[in-house]
Amino acid sequence: MNDIISIESISKLHEYGAREKPKHPLVSVWEQTKTDYENIYKEFIGKRFVLDLYLISLKGVISGSFQYGRNSYDFEEGTMVFIAPGQVIAIEEKEIIEANDGWALFFHPDLIRKSDLGKKIDDYNFFSYEVNEALHLSDDEKNRLTICIKDIEKEYSQNIDKHSQNLIISNIELLLNYSKRFYDRQFYTRTNMNKDIVTRFEKLLLNYYNSGFQQENGVPTVKYCADQLSHSANYLSDLLKKETGRNAIDHIHSFIIEKAKTILLNSQNTVSEIAYDLGFEYPNYFGKLFKSKTGMSPAEYRILN
Q1: Comma-separated ranges of CATH 2.60.120.280 domains in the chain
Q2: pTM for the full model?
Q3: Alpha carbons 244 and 247: distance in angstroms, whole number
Q4: Cα–Cα distance measured from residue 9 to residue 106, given in angstroms and rounded to the nearest whole number
């Protein structure tokens, strides 16, 4: 692929895609029909882009490979992805197929910067999921989200007044909240797959310490564990939270504390030595973590047990 193309505004997006001038400078909805693909989307095939925009896309008729982050993923109808500004995107053509229409919502961070949504946009963790962690929608779910998209498009297509921006933002937030609900449904309906990931995660922690990796690399991080399991850190943490009630860092800390308890009661090593053996660079941090989990310091635990 050639050099990365930077698209920093809605206007430049429309210009590059050979579309008419945008009706709103900060937000745009693009249809994904077969005709749109043949006339517009082909301009993006085989190129890499950095979007300084949020992108929420529901796969429609285009059958192809979409690369975002570390992975390349073959889309299916009903697949939905969320991309935050500043990410590199690449699309590789495969074929055009007949299917239901899709859409893509682009909006600039300035649209929501002064709003309540701007303050909590980072709480929607799925903007940092990998493409192989995409949301797969039922027909009813697709219809529900498409209503939000139509309302956004209708709002910026008519005469813009003092209420327009708030109504557009409200519909984007509604779309995101529905998406959060649908992701929860996806976590719950894939419970067998999720339990397998929980088991692999627990084995990963066990093997990490049994192999002595902590001596060289320190306490395992959520990112390290997620990479080993081929997931993003946020997706792994959210999956564990839905499946077990604890996020990834809680699992890691609980594993370490249980291991520390065993060592404290079965060795004469000092607390500092145990902390270093567990991968902590600073024993004081180990002591604070231990007390936060057990209600007592490591030394107190050793004496009382």
Answers
A1: 4-189
A2: 0.76
A3: 8
A4: 10
Query: Which of 100-104, 195-199, 225-229, 274-278 has the lowest average pLDDT?
Result: 100-104
Q: Following CA atoms 7, 9, 13, 15 in sequence, which dihedral angle do they give, to the nearest 10 degrees?
A: -110
Largest CA distance in the chain: 77
**Domain 4-189: CATH class, spelled out:** mainly beta
**pLDDT of 253-273, one tens digit each?**
999 999 999 999 999 999 999
Share of the chain above pLDDT 90, in %: 60
99-121 b/e (C-beta count within 10 Å ≥ 16 → b) = beebbbbbbbeebbeebebeeeb
- Burial class for 27, CB neighbours closer than 10 Å (0-12, 13-18, 19+): buried
Average pLDDT, the chain: 86
CATH of domain 192-304: 1.10.10.60
Place of tokens 């989307």: 41
